[in-house]
Each structure stands twice: as C-alpha cells, then as structure tokens.
Amino acid sequence: MPLGAFKAALMGTAGVSTEGDVVLLATTTASSDASISFTSDIDSTYGEYIFRFYDMNPEYTSGATQLTFQCSIDGGSNYNVAQTSTSFYANHQEDDTDTTFPANSGMSQDTSTDNALTQSQGYGADECSAGELHLFNPSSTTYAKHFYSETNGVRDPAGVSAWSVHFFRSGYYNTTSAINAVRFQFNYGDMDGKIKMWGVK
Fold first, then answer.
1. Can you state the percent helix, strand and coil of the chain, rounding each to 5?
2. Which of 47, 120, 132, 139 is deepest in the core (most CB within 10 A)?
3. C-alpha span between 60 and 165 (Å, rounded)
4. How many domains would you assign to the chain?
C-alpha cells in the first residue's frame, strides 16, 4: 500500500479506509479515568491492530509510574492473559549528565499479565508519553499473539533532572485462544490522554 494512502487512512475518520487496507476503528479520550479499554472491533476482520497514544499523562503524584496494557480472551471480563517479553531503552537527561542505551532486563517479563509501555514516567502537568503498540493476528486459535511497542516519555524521578526515554518492548501472549479486548492504564492512579485503534488487513 503506498505511503500516501497509508497516511491518509491513519488520519481519516472512524470506519473510513483508503484502498480498504487500514481502517480507523475507534478513538477514546481519558479525562481522570482509571483506564481505556477496547472491547469491540478486535476480531478476525483484521490481521493487525495498531494502537497509538497521544499525551498520556498520569494523575498519580507520589512518584513515577508506567503506562501498561493487558489483554483479555473473554471480552474484557478478565485481563489475565500471560505474556513473555523483552525490552530496552535509550535515554537522555535534560542536564546532559546521563545518556545511555541499555537493555532493560528488569522490565523484561516471563509469564506476566502486565506489560509496561513506558519507563518510570513523570507526573508533572507537562509530562506525558506518546507512542504506538502493534498486536498481530489476535483472533488466531492456533498461534501465540505477537506484539511490539515503541514510546517516548518524560522520566522524572523526584529531585532529579528529567530524562527523555525512548522505550521499546516486544513479545508474545502465550495463548491459542482469541484475544478480543485490550486495556490501557497506568499502574498507579488515573490518567488523561487519547488512544486511537486501527485495523490493518
């Protein structure tokens, strides 16, 4: 599919596609909400789902927190599907005292149900994160469900100069049951922000 058509589809209105390959399915905005859930449109119609996050800001004010996502195989009644994943990040501190590109073994996970999409995100009024998550063939009843994510956020530990953190995660949900719902939330506190979901044929 040509890049121009892909861009047009991603910026289009819900339910409208270009060349029938990429469709914006839903847009959800959080305002002091505990989570954003997508419990419809995730079915065998599309082989890939793309979620993009805009200005995700936590309302937890007691320390750094993380944007996370979980998957469900029962329409959102439970978000307890186990996954295995790995992660790494690059960061640059505002005062230029720290510039690193480490693996992040502490956030790589084995059979966890909670996936971090950001790393130690700050909670200031102007501190947010943005990025995207790709989930492949979630309706398969034969194979595990692969995913990868890429985000950038403001890491801001108390009393320390803030970092820009570019965070990468990939892995798979170890289930042959169809995934039919996805939830996003911070591991502490409510949140503001917007998430859009596209289907890719």
1. 5, 50, 45
2. 120
3. 19
4. 1
Q: Is 145 helix (H, G, I), strand (E, B) or coil?
A: strand
Note down the domain range covering 129. 24-137+185-201
Domain membership of residue 67 (yes or no) is yes
Query: What CA–CA distance (Å, rounded) separates 78 from 85?
Result: 20
Closest CA to 170 of 195, 140, 200, 150: 150
Find tokens 């102007």 and name the residue.
126
For residue 166, give both structure tokens.
Answer: 């570019």
pTM of the model: 0.86
E strand or H helix at 95: none
**Residue 107 included in any domain:** yes
**50 dihedral zone (left: phi>0; alpha: psi -120 to 50; beta):** beta
Q: How far apart are CA 122 and CA 72, in angstroms?
A: 28
pLDDT in tens, the chain (201 residues): 444 445 544 555 455 454 568 999 999 999 999 999 999 999 999 999 999 999 999 988 777 788 999 999 999 999 999 999 988 888 888 888 877 776 665 555 555 666 889 888 888 888 899 999 999 999 999 999 999 999 999 887 665 678 888 999 999 999 999 999 999 999 888 999 999 999 998
- Whether 61 is in a domain gets the answer yes
Q: Is residue 100 part of a domain?
A: yes
